[in-house]
Design goal:
Blueprint lengths: L3 H11 L4 H20 L4 H10 L8 H7 L2 H6 L7 H14 L4 H8 L10 H12 L6 H10 L3 H18 L6 H22 L1
Helix pairs in contact: 1-3, 2-3, 2-8, 3-7, 3-8, 4-6, 6-7, 7-8, 8-9, 8-10, 9-10, 10-11
């Protein structure tokens, strides 16, 4: 088993020229560990996921694409900000021989999210949006909700990311909208069950 200390050291070295990104990753790690404890999620995998999710974020799009299979490059050519999620998992496998499906899926889905996210993926998505260094009102609301109801926090995180994309004039991914609607429906169904 690879130590978290070793992974953290590698991430720190990789991001030595971008202290802000490294501080963000530590913020994600801190929040995700708190949420993992609250929701009884094993810390080891959650820590790897949190530490490595932005590992290749600062690399050029060309470099990221050089790691990726052509189908992923083509799938996200209009959303190249997604590439780092996939290239990070490829580097995780290359450097540490870690290819655990739960870890890979959580990192791969942290930018856009998707339907049927694991609890690990939900915690990463929420933590990435709302770690303590994200000072805006939206992230603060997500962070507070996360300790009350994880799925409500997830919906709020999706809404925040979609609103932000629209404000910036970016393309909103259809799968992201479908995931938002899916989780809203899940919450409504649970509320109906609780009324019975």
């Amino acid at each position: 088993m690879i130590s978290i200390r070793r992974i953290k050291k590698e991430v720190k070295k990789k991001l030595s020229s971008d202290l802000k990104r490294y501080i963000h990753i530590l913020g994600v790690l801190e929040l995700s560990k708190k949420l993992a404890k609250k929701y009884n999620v094993p810390l080891y995998k959650m820590s790897i996921i949190s530490l490595f999710h932005d590992y290749t974020k600062n690399e050029s799009i060309e470099t990221q694409c050089s790691y990726l299979p052509i189908d992923i490059v083509n799938l996200y050519k209009n959303r190249p900000s997604v590439y780092h999620a996939y290239s990070a998992t490829i580097m995780l496998k290359k450097i540490f021989k870690i290819s655990d499906k739960i870890i890979v899926d959580a990192i791969n889905s942290h930018v856009l999210g998707n339907i049927n996210m694991s609890i690990y993926a939900k915690i990463l998505f929420i933590s990435d949006v709302s770690e303590k260094n994200r000072k805006y009102e939206g992230p603060k609301k997500v962070r507070e909700l996360a300790f009350i109801n994880l799925d409500s926090a997830l919906v709020t995180a999706f809404e925040y990311k979609i609103e932000n994309a629209i404000k910036k004039g970016n393309i909103v991914d259809n799968n992201q909208i479908q995931a938002l609607e899916y989780y809203k429906k899940q919450i409504q169904n649970k509320e109906k069950e609780n009324v019975k």
